[in-house]
């Protein structure tokens, strides 16, 4: 199998080196992807000066262009987000807004540069909302050209109104681990298919 490249955007509200459940699930996804010959790195978005906006470069020191360069060079995009008030984090929403600029970026055959790239999602929180977050994020990613694999999300949700986070929890449920492995297998499979056979020209 040819090796693939993934970039994981951790959309925690916490700057490094603070512990992050979102980063933990992002790394677990990358570990599962490594079993399918996919290499990748985690980027904690708040560690970078990413500006609000909907262009590829907001100027004045905006660090999104360097993150975008890694996304465009990769075969797979991993988004890892916490749940806040039943919603994806504000950092996740900012990332999606920046990706909106990809609607104006095309190759010589008129395809978005995100066509042929696979996107998957990891969600963590101590309240309900994982399915809602998944629906919102996947809709946005698909709108800007990413392809979503079957079973492309994995999540852990702790007991409501409690303070235990994913990175503090004891043994993780088999369901989350199985979902992560399935996500990785399907995403790597789909990414290889798209690398070999790109979408038709527009």
Automatic annotation (TrEMBL):
<protein>
    <submittedName>
        <fullName>NAD(P)H-dependent oxidoreductase</fullName>
    </submittedName>
</protein>
<dbReference type="Pfam" id="PF03358">
    <property type="entry name" value="FMN_red"/>
</dbReference>
<dbReference type="InterPro" id="IPR005025">
    <property type="entry name" value="FMN_Rdtase-like_dom"/>
</dbReference>
<feature type="domain" description="NADPH-dependent FMN reductase-like">
    <location>
        <begin position="5"/>
        <end position="155"/>
    </location>
</feature>
<dbReference type="GO" id="GO:0016491">
    <property type="term" value="F:oxidoreductase activity"/>
</dbReference>
<dbReference type="InterPro" id="IPR029039">
    <property type="entry name" value="Flavoprotein-like_sf"/>
</dbReference>
